[in-house]
Amino acid sequence: MKPVWLIAGNFVREQRWPIVILLGWVALLSAAAGFSDLRRSPDDVFMMFQQVAVYILVFSLFFGASAIRNELRTRRILAVLSKGISRRQYIAGLLLGIVTAVVVYCLALGAAGSWVLPQAGVPAARFWFLLLGLLTASLLTACLALFFSIFLHPLLATGATMVSVGVPLLLAAVWKSPWAAVIPVYAILQGFLDLSGHDVALRGWMVLLAWGETGVLWLASAWLFSWKDVAVAVE
Amino acid sequence: MAAVLEFEEVSKHYGGWLSRRPPVRALDNFSLQVEAGEIFGFLGPNGAGKTTAIHLALGFMRANSGRGRMLGRPFGEARTRRRVGFLAENVALYHRPALHLVQFYGALNGMGGTRLRQRARDVLELVNLGSDAERNVAAFSRGMLQRIGLAQALVNDPELLILDEPTSALDPIARVVIRELLLRLKREGKTVFLSSHLLSEVELVCDRVGVMHQGRLARLGKTADLLHSREQTQVVARGIAAGAFPGAVASDGVVSFIIATASQRQVLEQIWKLGGEVVSVNPLKRSLEQIFLEVTQARGEGA
Lengths: 235, 303
Ligand SMILES: Nc1ncnc2c1ncn2[C@@H]1O[C@H](COP(=O)(O)OP(=O)(O)OP(=O)(O)O)[C@@H](O)[C@H]1O
Ligand SMILES: [Mg+2]
Hints:
By secondary structure, chain A is mainly α.
């Protein structure tokens, strides 16, 4: 487990500027939502929280799609993988690094939310559960992007991830079926997007399913990555 | 003695289908055994396949066919790499203070605590970077980078040290330091696998050398055996005319020339008959450069 933490810490350290800048953005929006006047425009406030949630998801996508590529491009991956660390641990480390950043974002959002949302009738407990959902959806997204980035250019990996997340959504919209839960990123996020409504509940089983899928994707990524020539130069 | 690093009919090609580039056969049924406790020199012209062989051993990629073992285990196992040190040919490390960096790589190998801290300081001393321990690696010169690269390879006190052109950027003094370091590791029973283009250096430290050419091992042997030709002998004599033997050159009052070892007795008798005096008779010492040229030319013509 120790190498995994080291890789995660290293990822956060190497990506500290994007992480901090995005954190500034998240914190700013969260604060703006937190200090806005609820009674006058509750919908605007909900909108701000939803916006931040979507940003966090997009950041995860971005980090997931570029993590491996960065290390290959700089060739720094060689010294790391020449140590006693397996490909599986390496992938887990990158994911843990991304999760760490997302947890920090969720905490920033959560701090603002639990301050202001109870006044609008959203219980703090429900809000934190939604945040757990957001974290889960972000992790699954990052994991998908990481998986695709092993064999695709980061831009294509981003596209492939968006398709994977979007197709179940499309199916659900067309057939009104539970298809959206196949890759439950949107299904989970819906709880967030419907902050004011209370009628769309975030279901625990979706969160569990997403964690399960993340686990499977992690193993699949590690297996795929173990076939990758890491010494081959990428542009 | 047991083989510490073993390649058995390993082939590796790059490119091919799905790739825009034409396929390249980097290793072609390559076999080699590196014994425990030796310093092995791995030579060959650019593109011969040295780096490819090393990367296969470390599990950075997989061979297309054949198999290999490192410290008795198949290539690519993380546990085995804990006992190995590696310095890449274009070393790329994270930008942070030298001491932290070395500790990071040590920790990846499962080290920790005061032992790691002490060891990190020690290896920085070993490569003469003790006074730069707090400086950020981003500001290091190329030679310093290579030395910190060596430090991170040594941090886990490896049984097998794999170095891909470790001294290409070093100044002469640093080279001497590294040479002594390698000899010391050997005395401690460690094995060193050294890929290098600096032939004089290889001559000085390596017990055995292998010369790669076009993905195959073209020469293999004890350094001394390779350098000393059995077929040719160098004769140095005094008191004879330079013209007495074909190709002889006179300097400092002695005449030296090269003969076929088979005709040695005959030649010596001839010198005595001419009233000359034999100063020395030695197997011809060739330089690694010559062997290198022989290998590449012979193969080049054959292909
Ligand atoms: N990533 C790659 N993609 C395609 N071909 C490659 C790749 N890496 C190496 N090659 C080819 O494989 C062959 C062997 O390369 P390798 O790097 O192993 O040589 P080398 O002996 O280390 O050379 P040098 O002395 O220049 O370091 C060369 O023909 C090279 O062009
Ligand atoms: Mg090379």
